[in-house]
Amino acid sequence: MTGQIAARIRLALTGALGGAALWAAIQAADRNWLGDFSALALFVFLTTAFGAVLALAGPIGLGRAVPRGLALGVLVGALTWLAALRFDTVDQLLFGAIPLLALFTLATLPLPFLIAQVRSRWNDYPVLFLEAWSIVLRFAAAGAFTGLVWLVIFLSDELLQIVGIGIIGRLLADQLVALALTGAILGLGMAVIHDLADLLSPYVVLRVFRLFLPVVLGVMVVFLIALPFRGLDGLVSGLSPATLLLTMVGGGIALVSIAIDQADADATQSPLLIRCTQGLALILPVVAGLALWAVWLRVADRGWSPERLFVVLVAAVGLVYGLVYAVSVLRGAGWMERIRQGNIRVALAVLGLAALWLTPVLNAERISAASQVSRFEALGVEALDPGALRSWGKPGAAALAVLEAKATEPGQEALAAVLAGEPARQADNRPALVAELAALLPVQPTSATGMRDVILGAAEAFQLQDWLQVCRVQLETGQPGCLMVVADLLPLRPGEEAMLFLQRSVDYIEVSGLYLDDSGMLVWRTATQPDGTYLSSEAAGRLLRQYQAAPPPLTGAELNQLGIGEDGLLFLP
Q1: pLDDT tens across 235-281, in order?
Q2: Measured between alpha carbons, how far is 515 from 533 in angstroms, rounded to an integer?
Q3: Most C-beta atoms within 10 A of its C-beta, which of 394, 426, 532, 556?
Q4: Closest residue by Cα to residue 232 from 524, 518, 475
């Protein structure tokens, strides 16, 4: 037996052992031999340890990979258990993807450093660069190989079932066999792919990725040029714009790192790509800064939540990357090597942040719960989100206990109602809401303020708050981002009705029909065009500006129906 075959068998057996260990952990959890959090920590330990061993065994050998993989598994498993202490149930811990992302970062990012430490030194950038991308390629290829093998097994079982042979299906119905076989296939795939490193080098893929540099740079430049003309409203409409910007920043960071490669001799030699790399490095801090500013405005408006804290940290890391890249380019000769060393330092900082996220030092739930309580004390029950507090584990429960105790005090009936799941009782500040909205909400024709006030008086408090939030934002023209147009839109009903324009973001305007029913309740309907289609963003924006300048004419709809009244039939063109 050759050494290569023996190495493949050893790694396949290691994978099978990992699958069997996972099966044992699942059985222990199902039979309540372990508590939920202990079972989760054990599962994370096994997944991290065996995954690390499979990744490290090819480059440094199985003997060296095992102790390092086990040590990494112990560290990540211990941090999992530590993070679980702030929650009452495992479901609360796993409710969001952020803890899982932190665990994934801790389980994968140290792997190139462990390989480099054995081969030369822990901060040897050429080794770090090559092994980081090689690990990604090996796992991707081994995962595809595992899926292909399972497809062959499934088809083989289906074929044998035709002639009454079901032994494969009966074997695979056993969870232990399925998990052990999956681990063995994955381990064998990792070993084979490492042996074929010369044929499956990541350099081919990385060379292709370099071609995206001019495209990404062009998109970012166009975005930055167009931004002052379109305004910054779109950046503050939620987390999505900031997340999109950060995705572009992440792609830019990866492309710059790919272009400069592991050393100057391996970096791109194309003058065009070199200039694109430098240009991308210079504008990355601008885009990252915009993302950080957008999220910070959201935090100032809504307070902290674990998601917002996470995005702020990601934006801060992106800004640090951008500043390192930009300063390195501006300092002239040697800029590529400075970026490489900066990559190492920022990667270590990311590891530190991921670890801190799982410790009491950076308890996102505690920070968010304290922010909610502070917002309640400053702004009242309208700023309170009990549902979010209930999902923030023990810190959220502690904050709810404080609020529930306060709700028993005289004058805190609105707080008690909100905590009980009822709508906030805002009778005390409702006149103020109506008055402020009446002062901000333009109406056409300008003489129709009476009907506007009737509609505002019939609106629910949450609707008034929502409309007021939109009307407080000014457009480029200096006018509020809202408008009410009053007219007799339903001839068979007494009185007049209204259409309400709300510019919720730079590219979305909501248009609604409003009228009072027979009981005086406000009814809301979505406005459409005569053919039943919805207004496009451009058309809604054009109508909003047009109607702000002058009231539109009232014309009859070009429709007839068969039959009489509510029993009639019609169709929209």
Answers
A1: 544 446 788 889 999 999 999 999 999 999 999 999 999 999 999 99
A2: 21
A3: 426
A4: 475
pLDDT digits (tens, 9 = 90+) for 330-375: 999 999 999 999 999 999 999 999 999 999 999 999 999 999 899 8
Whether residue 426 has pLDDT greater than 80: no
Residue 532 DSSP one-character state: S
Which three-class secondary structure state does DSSP give residue 359?
Answer: coil
Partner residues linked to 515 by β-bridges: 523
Nearest to 53 by CA among 63, 66, 64: 66
The closest alpha carbon to 187, from 305, 39, 29, 15, belongs to 15
Contact indicator for 497, 487 with CB cutoff of 8 Å: yes
Residues 481 and 548: beta-carbon distance below 8 Å: no
* 3-state SS assignment for residue 548: helix
pLDDT on residue 499: 94
Q: What angle do helix axes 110-119 and 36-60 make, rounded to 10 degrees?
A: 40
Q: Which pTM value belongs to this model?
A: 0.75
Buried (b) or exposed (e) across 171-185, using 16+ Cβ within 10 A?
Answer: eeeeeeebbbbbbbb
Q: Give the contacts of 537 (CB within 8 A, at least 6 positions apart).
A: 507, 508, 509
Give the residue extent of every domain in the chain: 3-201, 207-362, 364-419, 430-551
